[in-house]
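<instruction>
Derive structure tokens from the sequence
<data>
Labelled lines for chain and fold:
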Amino acid sequence: MNKIIIVIIAVSLLIISCKKSANYNYTFATGGTSGTYYSFGNSMSSIWNANIKGMNITAISTGASAENLRLLDRQGANLAFAQNDVMYYAYNGTDIFNGEVLTNFSAMLTLYPEIVQIAASKSSGIKTIADLKGKRVSVGDAGSGVEFNAKQILGAYGLSFDHIEKYNLSFKDSSDGLQNNTLDACFIVAGIPNAALQELSLHTDITLISLDKIQMDEIVNRYKYYSKVIIPANTYNNVSSDTMAVAVKASIVVNNNVPEDAVYNLMKTLFDKQYDLGLAHEKGKEFSIEEAYKGISIPFHPGAIKYYKELGYYIQ
């Protein structure tokens, strides 16, 4: 009898242990509270928590991509948003990370394009990238992904930061600079329409600078995380023609220690409940399974690979 009781107790403890192990308390690193990452991350977390048993994800405000990858690497977060170019830099220790190699994370999927938008005041007379030479240009915060996007695009035209009067300003400060004529142009990397540019275009006549085909081809061939996109006419007030541009992708990455089954369930729920997510946040309408694995140049998490392969997509 005693042996039977011991077996029953052991089995009960095992069941309890299994139940506990199925509870996931995760932190989702997003971005600033006024940005898309934070609001979208909260919408995603609500969908996951409501539809995956034992899932409890909390979205937290951060400094976005670079900080998020450092948080993942030291296990200060479990999931995170990151631009696909910035996670390439981190994984290879280049550009922003400059020898600091981070590898304790892997990819889930890309979501929506973050377009390199180059705006100039009409009064500046700037119409092309070449016209930026000698002008007052904001290239985003110092050490940001935007600054490196600007450097790469200028480089395709044989220009460097030495050829412009460079300013490192936030999107809002860049917009204000164009409005009060302390800047001639700015680089903004974001989904469209960007709130700062949208507000600017209501008060100041602006031009969006198109990239030329030769340089655009050079950029996407050299840097595999870029894709070609079009900013449609009338995205911003009085910008009446399409603009040729390049974009990086907003992506979700996870710490390598997150279990395969958890990542698989996160992936599956995201796509199964995409309609609901689209109702909760506009960006929920912009991603698709056909594009989700493109533009990724770091390893995928095994849970993501399992989901892609289940749907017939071959992921190495």
